[in-house]
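HUMAN: Forgive my ignorance: could you write out one protein's sequence and backbone structure tokens?

ASSISTANT:
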Amino acid sequence: MAETKSTITRPPTNEPGRTGGALPPEGFSFWRLVHIGILDRYIIKKFLTTFFFAIMVLAVISCVIDYSEKVDNILSKKAPLMAVLNYYKDFVPHITALLFPLFIFIATIFFTSQIAYKSEIIAILASGTSFSRFFRPYMIGGGFLCLISLVANHWIIPVANKERIAFEDKYINDDNFKVADNDLHFGLTKDTYVYLQNYNYSNNTGNHFTWEKIDGTLLKVKLMADNVSYDSTRKMWHLFNVVIRRNDTLKESIRRVHDTEAHYAFTPADLNRTDAIKEALTTPELNRYIAAEQLHGRENLNTYYIEKHRRTAAPFAGMILTTIGACIACRKIRGGSGLHLALGIVISALYIMFMQISTTFSSKSNLDPLISVWIPNVIFGMVALFLYRRQIK
């Protein structure tokens, strides 16, 4: 009697139950890249809901803490209720953008440790799904959030910061600027320069004003005034006890005038060089402001360059921390979510420490701002690559 052999038909590896959704043949690489399967939708949904829940909770806590610190000023200056509500409407995007890498990291740690504790990740990997395939929805969800953060950092958050800072200047800050920095030197154009010993905003007057026009190495005109005041209505400067010195290489003349008026391409607001303005400028406006300050002769602009590069580096930090969080929390351990969150907090603290150290070196010394902002990303990027490769093996 002839022996019969039975054949066993194995299910294809691309069936829905094994990879989160049927995929076309291997040749369709683009379709495989953009196809969103059941597994992708499941993880992305948990990722985004946890992220926005974390933002909501931490934003409420931040608003409560901020209000408790500023409530005395708000009540004493009788800030309108709508103005306070609008302030916190703008405060939430500010704190979210500031802590975005930490929000996305905590969200990744939290929901990944939960599904790991329920043995869902073990079941997914045991079905034949590779870790790279399991990790893909993290990149999709993280990439989506980081793209939103990138656009918001450059164009949306600065608009909210402008209104937030205006509210703080009006109702919160006890000592609004009264006197500008002493010995202000800056250029108006490539051949005209201004010096002002000091400027008092309370009475709108300044002392020892000098305006110079230089052609190459030749000082052509030098105007000196003992006192100046600014007419904001007419946008004119009023100068008192003026001495005008002219030099045309062959003849020099000096003329004295009791008082006169002139229009110069700066206002008293330009004398208030507060660093808070960098947060209220969109990136194109920030680039123009940096160019103007360079023309004015300002020496250290590293804080503005740090703000400019930080707006791009922070979203990429979110992607790096997403990778680290997924690789750490995907393993089921005895400590559960608590141990994962504790480890996440430690890593977050290390990231903040590296960022503070590197930006301090840039603002206080000659370290390039671009390098200082990206150093933490490079260090933690190597950690993320190491953890990812270990998980694949």
